[in-house]
Design a protein that fits this description.
Length: 81
């Protein structure tokens, strides 16, 4: 499932020079989270994360491969600076 998601969103994100660092799907308490961590040379600002989320969301809706209700959490990779 996660590999299928990666393949579906990779190309559209490459147009923004964004790479996928990690994708996880996990349950925390009563909620499921699909966490997608992104990276880009020189880092990602909030506007770019929002733009990436707006690309990812409709692709996930079209794929419709996750049966459970979940929260999509798109974030940028932390930089140790």
């Amino acid at each position: 499932m996660l590999e299928e998601i990666r393949k579906a969103i990779e190309k559209p994100l490459e147009k923004l020079e964004i790479v996928i660092d990690d994708i996880t799907f996990e349950k925390e308490g009563a909620y499921y989270f699909l966490r997608i961590t992104l990276d880009k040379v020189n880092g990602l600002d909030l506007d770019t994360v929002v733009e990436a989320t707006n690309i990812i969301n409709p692709i996930l809706d079209e794929l419709d491969i996750i049966e459970e209700s979940y929260i999509l959490d798109v974030s940028s990779k932390e930089r140790g600076e």
